[in-house]
From TrEMBL:
Pfam families: FAD_binding_4
Signal peptide (residue range): none
Domain called FAD-binding PCMH-type: residue spans: 48-221
Protein name stated in the entry: FAD-binding oxidoreductase
SUPFAM superfamilies: FAD-binding/transporter-associated domain-like
Domain of life according to the entry: Bacteria
Length: 452
């Protein structure tokens, strides 16, 4: 059975069964809690702008999640799970109305042990990091939205971020240890997934289970200094980024390379970064600053800003100018801009990066985020695109793919059409087991729609 838009009578009956739970029906709040940052995409905007949930439910415990799910199944109401709504592809936008299950108030940190934390999905990443650092540990990786993003949303809709230069991506074995999942059946169950089984629900946009608890690994905490390094030409900056990323003896957490004119969009640094420069934004352990400075000197870079960890802890940080915050700052100046998500192949000479940079010029402004994949540091990219037409955007994507770059398309809300490109059979089979009516986030999983 497929879900349909909820009817008023269903919603009244549904709400009557949720005694004690927070329910939101205010139209302005419904609109706000039905959205994320899909507005980065001019393709997604017309497809998602009018999508709204009919009611928001905010549970505070797993028992309340089960109470809400039981009612949703009884009345066959579509159910879309939401964290803080910091995703970029409409992951938490309800395509068929119904119920938005907002887990942002499930904020308990159950326990912290050396190297591991057990948390509820609504815990904000910044709050968790602050708590674990007290015992000498920190989150392995986090998005640039870490101040507001929740751990459940990051696992359900994200892929990597600051820290991925050392620890890879969420999908890499060992970066998620266990999850508790509530099923969407006539009699909801709680299932614990451990080991590789966690990837049945990780990065599935909440289409096949409701995560109510997670065990995540932690990393040794360092005092992270921040620096901006300016370079006179882009490829020197990019090659510095590659060599810095490959320098295993220098402890780092962020290697972000921005081609001119991207630095001009950073209002806070307009008097810091020389006009016309290309720059590297980095987080480096204070204990590694001396060899870092030597590497900067080798590549004729200029450190135009450097902050100690203590200084960096006050106010905004360089993290909030990297990854998709780079796009956010650019769009705050020019809302017509959009972006791509590209994975370049391993190549220490960065030949394909250079080819794309030369070919597109500032129509596709180069923004690299170095990550570790398969034991190697490679340049991922979140290029900023001067958008003109859907046809031209498709041409840009096709040119990248034809020359060997992998595009994780950020202009689709369908799970398999974005980064995966293929059907994840394990995720589909799990959905068949735990969501037999297809109520969870309908319209986002192509495999479910096309199943036989």
């Amino acid at each position: 059975m497929t879900s349909t838009t909820a009817q008023p009578a269903d919603l009244e009956s549904f709400s009557a069964e949720l005694t004690g739970l927070e329910i939101i029906t205010d139209p302005a709040q419904l609109t706000k809690l039905s959205q994320d940052y899909y507005t980065f995409s001019p393709i997604l905007q017309p497809l998602l702008n009018d999508k709204r949930g009919d009611v928001v439910v905010r549970p505070t415990t797993e028992a309340e999640v089960i109470q809400a799910v039981t009612a949703c199944v009884k009345w066959r109401l579509p159910l879309t799970v939401r964290g803080a709504g910091t995703g970029n592809y409409g992951q938490c936008v309800p395509l068929q109305g119904g119920v938005i299950l907002d887990l942002s108030k499930m904020q308990a940190v159950k326990w912290v042990k050396p190297g591991i934390a057990c948390v509820e999905p609504g815990v904000k990443l910044a709050a968790l990091d602050k708590e674990t650092r007290g015992s000498g540990w920190e989150i392995r990786m986090l998005p640039s939205t870490y101040r507001t993003a929740t751990i459940g949303g990051f696992i359900g809709g994200g892929s990597g971020g600051i820290g991925s230069i050392t620890y890879g991506q969420i999908r890499d074995r060992g970066n998620l240890l266990a999850v508790r999942v509530v099923t969407v059946e006539d009699e909801p169950r709680v299932i614990e997934l451990r080991g590789d089984d966690v990837y049945k629900v990780a990065h599935a946009y909440g289409t096949n289970g409701i995560i109510t608890e997670l065990e995540i690994p932690l990393a040794p905490a360092y005092a992270w200094a921040e620096a901006i390094v300016a370079f006179p030409d882009f490829m020197t900056a990019a090659r510095f980024g590659q060599v810095f990323s490959d320098s295993d003896g220098i402890i780092k957490k962020l290697v972000c390379i921005c081609a001119d004119p991207i630095p001009t969009y950073f209002a806070a640094f307009r008097n810091v970064i020389p006009v016309g420069s290309h720059c590297a934004l980095v987080l480096v352990a204070e204990s590694s600053l001396e060899p870092f400075a030597a590497l900067v000197n080798e590549y004729n870079g200029t450190i135009c800003l450097q902050k100690s960890a203590q200084e960096a802890s006050k106010g905004s940080t360089l993290v909030e100018y990297s990854w998709n915050h780079t796009t956010l700052h650019a769009r705050s100046v020019d809302p017509s801009l959009t972006y791509l998500q590209t994975m370049f192949p391993s190549d220490k000479e960065l030949k394909l990066v250079e080819r794309m940079y030369q070919h597109f010029g500032d129509e596709v402004m180069m923004h690299l985020e170095f990550i570790r994949m398969g034991g190697e540091a490679i340049p991922a990219a979140l290029q900023i695109v001067r958008y003109t037409t859907p046809e031209r955007l498709a041409e840009i994507i096709r040119y990248h793919e034809d020359h060997g770059a992998f595009i994780a398309n950020p202009h689709t809300f369908v799970l398999e059409d974005g980064g995966r490109k293929t059907v994840d059979v394990e995720q589909l089979r799990f959905k068949e087991r735990v969501d037999p009516y297809g109520l969870l986030n309908p319209g986002k999983m192509r495999a479910w729609a096309e199943r036989k």
